[in-house]
Specification:
16 strands, Aspartate Aminotransferase, domain 1, binds pyridoxal-5'-phosphate, pyridoxal phosphate binding, pyridoxal phosphate, Aspartate aminotransferase family protein, single chain, Aspartate Aminotransferase, domain 2, 2 domains, alpha/beta
Length: 427
C-alpha cells in the first residue's frame, strides 16, 4: 500500500487508510489499484452501491439548474418532490418532512420538535427523553445526551443534561428467547417502570432504533416489543421517536424497519441510506398534528443552512427510484437471509462467534470469549483488531465496534449494498 502523504486532515485517531481512487457497484479501488469489496456500504450508507449512473445523471441535471437555493428565499422542485415521496413512504398521518444533512441533525431536530410540541400544547414540564443503553443517536450534544454509550458520552457529561436510559432488549445476553412475546413484554415494561419513576408528566419522548445500528450490532427487537412500547408511550402521552438513521432506506427489506412490526412512531429520523452516500442528506418526518401545533404556536425555532439542498434532494429522490425500480428491498431480504445463514454457519467453525443477528442486509456477528456465558472479549485481546486488518488485507471492508472489555459488545456489522448478489456473498 502506498503510504498516504502527511496530511492536515484529522479524524478520531492517527490511523491512516489507503487513498480511495474510485468506486463502482459493490467495489472500491485505492490509488494502487487494489480492489475492496464494500462489505459494510461504508458506514451502512451506500445502500444502492457506488456510482449508479441514473443517480449521477439526476444529480447532473439538477446541478445544471441550481445547486443551492436558501430555504428562506426559495422553494425548490427537488425538495418538494422528495418530501412528497418521503411522506408517501411514511406511516399514515406522518405527512411533514424537514430536511437536514445527516443523522445527528435528524435526531437533534426530532428532539427539538418534540420539545416545542410540548410547549405549544401547554406541557412545558415535559423535557426528559428516555433512550436505551447501549444505543447511538449521533454526535452533536443533543443527540449525544440520548446516546447510551459511555465511551463516547463520558467526556461531555458535564456539558449535557443527563437523560434517563433503560436497557436495550439484548435477549441473547440475558439468556432469554427473543421469539417469546413474554421477552418483549419484559423489556418493554422497563420503559413503563422508568416513566413512572421519572414522573410521567416530565417525560417528553422515548427514542429507539427499531433495528439497532453500530451500538448494539443489528439488534432486532424481541417479539411484541415494538407494539408494547407504542402502547406504553400512548398511555403516558410520551412521544415515540424512531431513529431510522441506519435502519431506514430499505436495508432491512422494508423502507422503514418499524414496518416489520407494523408500528408507527410520532416522529422519525432517517439519513444514511436516504441519499445512499451520493450527497449529505437526512430527514425528520413528523405527524401532522405535531407540526401544525408547533407552526400555530409561532413556528419551529430550528434550522440548518444546507437544509433542503436541491442537489442532495435530487440525489435522494433518484436513490428511492432506484430502490423501487430495481426491487432492491426484495433483494435485501433474499440476499440478507442467505448471508445470515452463511455467517451463522461460521459459528460451527469459530467458537469465538457468540451471536449472529440482524434483519435483511443489516447484519452483525458478535465476538465473545465464552459463547455459553456470552462473556465479552478481554480488554487486551488482539484477535479483534487483527481480524479487521486481515479482512482489509484481503480486500474486504467490514465495520467493527470494539468496546474493549465493556458490556456494549464487540461486533462486526456485515452490510453490503442492497445490489449484492449470491456471488458477492460467496466472495
Ligand atoms: N442514529 C443512528 C441510529 C446512527 O446509526 C447514526 C450514525 O451512525 C446516527 C444517528 C448519526 O448519524 P450521522 O453520523 O450521520 O450524524
Amino acid at each position: 500500500m502506498t503510504a498516504p502523504p502527511p496530511s492536515h486532515l484529522f479524524y478520531q485517531t492517527r490511523r491512516r487508510r489507503p487513498m480511495l481512487d474510485q468506486a463502482r457497484g459493490v467495489y472500491m479501488w485505492d490509488v494502487d489499484g487494489k480492489r475492496y469489496l464494500d462489505g459494510s456500504s461504508g458506514a451502512m450508507v451506500c445502500n444502492i452501491g457506488h456510482s449508479n449512473p441514473r443517480v449521477l445523471e439526476a444529480m447532473r441535471r439538477q446541478m445544471e439548474k441550481s445547486t443551492f437555493g436558501y430555504r428562506l428565499h426559495f422553494e425548490t422542485e427537488a425538495a418538494e418532490r422528495l418530501a412528497e415521496k418521503t411522506a408517501a413512504l411514511s406511516p399514515p398521518g406522518m405527512e411533514k418532512v424537514f430536511f437536514v444533512s445527516g443523522g445527528s441533525e435528524a435526531v437533534e431536530s426530532a428532539i427539538k420538535l418534540a420539545r416545542q410540541y410540548a410547549l405549544a400544547t401547554g406541557e412545558a414540564q415535559r423535557w426528559k427523553v428516555i433512550s436505551r443503553y447501549p444505543s447511538y443517536h449521533g454526535s452533536t450534544l443533543g443527540a449525544l445526551a440520548v446516546t447510551g454509550y459511555t465511551p463516547m458520552t463520558a467526556p461531555f457529561d458535564a456539558m449535557m443534561r443527563p437523560m434517563p436510559k433503560i436497557p436495550a432488549p439484548r435477549a441473547y445476553l440475558d439468556g432469554l428467547d427473543a421469539s417469546d412475546p413474554e421477552t418483549g413484554r419484559h423489556y418493554a415494561d422497563k420503559l413503563e417502570a422508568r416513566i413512572l419513576e421519572e414522573g410521567p408528566e416530565t417525560v417528553l419522548a422515548f427514542i429507539v432504533e427499531p433495528v439497532g445500528g453500530a451500538s448494539t450490532g443489528a439488534l432486532v427487537p424481541p417479539a411484541g416489543y415494538m407494539a408494547r412500547i407504542r402502547e406504553i408511550c400512548d398511555r403516558y402521552g410520551v412521544l415515540l421517536i424512531h431513529d431510522e438513521v441506519m435502519s431506514g432506506g430499505g436495508r432491512t427489506g422494508r423502507f422503514f424497519a418499524a414496518e416489520h412490526w407494523n408500528v408507527a412512531p410520532d416522529i422519525l429520523a432517517v439519513s444514511k441510506g436516504f441519499a445512499a452516500g451520493y450527497a449529505p442528506l437526512g430527514a425528520m418526518v413528523a405527524h401532522d398534528r405535531i407540526v401544525e401545533a408547533v407552526l400555530d404556536d409561532g413556528g419551529f425555532i430550528h434550522g440548518y443552512t444546507y437544509a433542503g439542498n436541491p442537489l442532495a434532494c435530487a440525489a435522494g429522490l433518484a436513490v428511492i427510484e432506484e430502490i423501487e425500480t430495481q426491487g432492491l428491498m426484495e433483494n435485501a431480504t433474499r440476499i440478507g437471509a442467505l448471508l445470515k445463514a452463511r455467517l451463522a454457519g461460521l459459528m460451527n467453525r469459530f467458537p469465538i462467534i457468540g451471536d449472529v443477528r440482524g434483519e435483511g442486509l443489516l447484519l452483525a456477528f458478535e465476538l465473545v470469549s465464552d459463547r455459553a456465558a456470552m462473556t465479552p472479549l478481554p480488554r487486551e485481546v488482539k484477535a479483534f483488531d487483527r481480524l479487521v486488518e486481515i479482512a482489509y488485507g484481503h480486500g474486504l471492508i467490514i465495520y467493527s465496534r470494539r468496546t474493549r472489555g465493556g458490556h456494549e459488545g464487540d461486533h462486526f456489522l456485515v452490510c453490503p449494498p442492497m445490489i449484492a448478489t449470491d456471488e458477492h456473498v460467496d466472495e
